[in-house]
Amino acid sequence: MEDKIRIFKIVLLIVFILLVVRAFQLQVLDGDYYYNLSEGNRTSFRPISAPRGKIIDRNGEIMVNNKLSHNLYLLPNEIPPQVSIDAVLKNIANYTSLTYANLLENYNLSKDNINNQGAFILKRNIKKEDMVILLENNNELPGVLVKESSIRDYVYGDLAAHLIGYVGEINKEELRYYSEQSIYSYHVQDMLGKSGLEKEYEEYLKGIDGVRQVEVNNLGEFVQELGVKDPVPGHNIVLNIDLKFQQKVERILESHIERLIIEAQEDDERCEPIGGSAIILNPNNGKILAMSSYPNFNLNTFTTGLSEEDYLKLSSDSRRPMLDRNIMVSVPPGSLFKLVTGTAAIKYLNVKAETEFNDPNGLFYIPGWSRPFRNWHEGGEGSMDFTKALARSNNIIFYKLGYNLYQEYRGEKLVETAINYGLSQKTNIDLPGEKKGRVPEEGLSSNSKSWNPGDSVNLSIGQGDLLTTPIQMANYISAIANRGTLFRPYILDEIVNFEGEVIFNQKSEVLHELDYDNRLYNILHQGMEEVTMSSYGTARSTFRDFPIEVSGKTGTAQTSIEDFSHGWFGGFAPSDDPEIVVLVFLENGSSSTYTLPIAGDIIKEYFDVNIEQEEKRDEVANTTTEDGQGAEQTNEKEENSNSNLFEYIRDVFSSKEEESN
Amino acid sequence: MLLNKKMYRNINIYIPLTVIVLIIIGFFAISSAVEINRIGSNGIIYLQKQVIATLTGIFIVIFIQFFDYRVFKEYYKLIFWTMIITLFMTRMYGVNISGGRRWLDLGFINFQPSELSKIALILVLASVLDRKNEFDSIIDLILPFLYFLIPFSLIVVENDLGTALVLLAILIIMLYVAGVNKKFLYVFFGGGFLTIIAVIASHLYFNTPLPFLKEYQLNRLVAFINPGIDPRGIGYNIIQSKIALGSGRFFGKGLFDGTQNQLNFLPEKHTDFIFSVIGEEFGFIGIFIIIALYVFLFWQLFKVVLEAKDNFGKLVVSGIIAMFFFHVVENIGMTMGVMPITGIPLPFISYGGTSMVVSLIAIGIVLNINIRKKKLHF
Question: How many Å apart are CA B184 and CA A256, to the nearest integer?
């Protein structure tokens, strides 16, 4: 029996040692793991959502605000253990308009998100009826939390839609992106900026959600409050934009474009403009005062998440209302580029204001080439000085300048000057999605075989391998207006936290100083003034008898598609001491002529020139559309030298053949 | 009276001391488990009941010492039939509490006969086995097996699986200590174990009816094998108990500071899962001390076995060791997730009057055997 007792003792000892080992494993090796689980068990996190920052104009007017909404959360730790999460979801679906499948999907998405602290969002911005019914039946729905939140309120709907941008629900890629950046404040179904300023300043606009940490028992019942982390509202951003002025600019742009469309429908010669844009900025610091793109869209369709119907409507619209025609289009600048050619000519060919040129027959031949380059005005305009050539936007004289520059420097100086003015570089305006355009940089290398005289000649009138954005053009006009400083255009003035402290003040920033002397700007300014003020300027129809002295340059840019040309106007006012630069772009605008009334109305609006008078003038213009129209057409059916491009292409091929021969 | 002064000197004082230490630790653990620290708690009632049960038990321990334990051998048939009748009466007139008709209402106290049946079985088996010297033939085993099978069946029918398993453990160990041919043990219990597995597997895979086992008992097995299957349902107890124990880490969260305990995440925390409370609030150190105390107590009980005057005494104490051993290992093991959940209490520590009194009766019998041990001849 003693032997048996000894074996019994050994067995007993081994069993107890195993139990101690198991205890050691649970409590010492895995202790922290279980400790965290026990902490997670007893705490429930009830989220407190932080409102997004407001967007405010330069005068303190609120452009974008928030309004009350309600979110639906599931708090698993507040559900009694005998009730399954599934049952709770089904119960919610019974009471409300929400479907079980949808709730389950959202719950699973939320559960998989590592940022989650134990409150799962089931639905953002639930309907009022649902909210009321959920609150009434709170007792039947343990662990279900209906909590105040906020959604975006775009006070003025479509005002500055492209500029402000819209918010949308965070997607999986964005969630992953923020996690990889170690930013853990984003949760499933969070709204974040998807375009415009909403996107650009997302990190400031987004607040930090708060949380109320409560202790719960095993039945999910509230025991005590452990602590509250207050939400931090997003910062407000204050813009350089003037809300009232922006509204007027938008109205002007819209009404003119719609008028032009109607007129074009009655006139076979003209094309219907697709859209357009206008930028008004301060040339002395780069502040954007107003910026509008048309057609636009209503931002409020996005606040609750875009419906499929709205999405289809917006994305299938051939006029592309979502496209910001200030920064996202890159198109040829046409004659607006002649100020670049002019700059190079003054600097490198020693051209002066009074240097005489001659356009005998409206044709320009590169020696040895059979096909001529044409002017928009047929038959030759005779002799004129350099500033008149600018004012007339005479292609023949600029071809000559381009060819002369080619003879001396090949493409180098012309391309270099374009780059100097900021072309082919982003302006770094504080908006996402800016295009950088392009200049033919192969012209820079002096021994490049791919550069031939036709390239220089074509480039001299803003055609060829050249693409620019309206914001680049505005900035380039601005640098000429302020005599040599290329500022970074910017919309944001300052960022103010919810307590009213300014936490960031955006200073004006110089992208590039041009090292041209004052004489050069004098010549360009004189030419630009003749564009508007002289009896022969291409913009005289609007600006000759204008109450403000305006300087500017027109441009009609051909594209590779026949009968598809864009209208440009870039100018500044007042001429002697510029306060604003105005740039107007008309997509498929047929001619720069049609940009002029738009620019004119905007400038008048800015200088607050007798609004009543202006309205009267509008009425008059409306009643005498036929006459005014006719006059404009005969005056300014300029620069339509479509055939040039095709001739040029043919010439390039023929010359190459010659070379190889 | 058969008690004399000499006998006092024989007493192994470590046995009552260890038991008292365990009981006092139990008082603290129960106080915390019933949230005696909370305002408006009625936990003090539990503590009072436990103290009364302990005092009753101690009184019985002392009372037992006045008889020579051999009296049990004389009256084993009486003990056996009393046990059977009480179990039967419980079956007929018992009070139904939480899933089993296990309680007999004696008017002033609710009493659980199945608890006492463990002691009864030990005494009966010891008497029967003591009467045989050879166990080489199967026929020798028929009688002890019958004495086991009748109470065992009654308790299984009562749905008290935990107690039934204790009886089985007592039988196996007592047969082994009594010197039954190991072949029989292997065949009987190995075969029995395999049959049970086959029956359960056939239920799980082919949905055949399950004799004796209720669905919730099967669920406990399933949950034991994989608690993650249904963490809010059948796996809940195991998961919460492991969290409680584990979260105590090395030093514990401190008395009354266990959140798993105080916020009621722990199930049955003052009875079956009292060990998880100790693990959470006193940590690994606390658990180590408790297990060490049990091992120490078992060592003293083994000493009693070896020093016992006769074979009957040795068998009785072995049976009592078997009973306590199974209780402690099963209870602690289940809180750690290494044993399936059965509702058997932790001796001396778990709340429960019958359990406390029965455990103390067992200790009383051990002490009775101890003080009448064989004389040492130097």
Answer: 107
d(CA A54, CA A571): 33
Residue B218 sits at the chain A interface (C-beta within 8 Å): no
Q: What is the pTM of this model?
A: 0.68
Domains of chain A by start residue, with CATH: 45-239 (3.90.1310.10), 243-295+323-651 (3.40.710.10)
Partner residue opposite A27 with nearest CB, options B245, B263, B314: B245
Concatenated DSSP letters of A601-651: HHHHHHTT--HHHHHHHHHHHHHTHHHHHHHHHHHH-----HHHHHHHHHH
pLDDT class of A569 with cuts at 50, 70, 90: very high
Which residues 275-314 on chain B approach chain A with CB closer than 8 angstroms? 279-280, 283-284, 287-288, 291, 294-295, 298-299, 302, 305-306, 311, 314
Q: In a mutagenesis test of the A interface, which of B294, B295, B320 is the best target, namely the one with the most A β-carbons within 10 Å?
A: B295
**ipTM of the prediction:** 0.93
Share of chain A above pLDDT 90, in %: 57
- Residues A211 and A47 sit within 8 Å (Cβ to Cβ): yes
Most B CBs within 10 Å, among A2, A4, A34, to test the B interface: A34
Residue that has been written with the tokens 């000057």 in this structure: A417
User: Could you give phi then psi for residue B128, rounded to 5 degrees?
Assistant: -65, -45
Between strands A55-56 and A236-239, the pairing is parallel
| Residue in chain B lying closest to A23 (CA) | B284
Q: What is the pLDDT of residues A405-420, one digit of tens each?
A: 999 988 899 999 999 9
Alpha helices for A295-385 (secondary structure H): 308-316, 338-348
**B302 occurs within a structural domain:** yes
**Whether the predicted pLDDT of A621 surpasses 60:** no
Q: Is B378 a member of any domain? A: no
